[in-house]
Prior knowledge:
single chain, alpha/beta, five-stranded parallel beta sheet, two-stranded antiparallel ribbon, 28% helix, globular
Amino acid sequence: MSKESLVASLRTVPDYPKKGILFWDVTTLFKDPAAFKEVEDILYEEFKDKGITKVAGVESRGFVMGAALASRLGAGFVLVRKPGKLPAETVRMDYDLEYGHDTIEMHTDAIVPGDVVLVHDDLLATGGTASAAVRLVKSFNPKQVYASFIIYLKDFGSIARFPDDVPVTTVLELEGA
Length: 177
């Protein structure tokens, strides 16, 4: 399957979640078995030899591919969630967005210092949530952190928000916001 076919499997929703934003919806890619498998294969090939021990999926679309990828890599899967959604003791990271302030949390026992962690989410645009997830994971002092995304909206230039020691992998690089 070509990158063009993967892009064609996406849906765009104008003015969501607010006016002026073009939302790139990966749920249509997820429901297409060939597209879903292709993205999983691309990410697996990228990370199969990196020694990943945990995949941290960012709420909520990052759970889908993140869990599939963790299973295929033989790694554990941990959740990065909005406040109050995890049942045990958590650690949190507050961060600013272009339109406000938010917080994400993980269980305090989610990651141990020897882990090699892949932080996964569906889309990288401004990078607020994703870079906060990376900082949260790094607070556990893992051996290495990687980040992956299905879509990167390169007009925002948000890869620059990530520390130099966190390699970032994207499947599709797209223009536009």
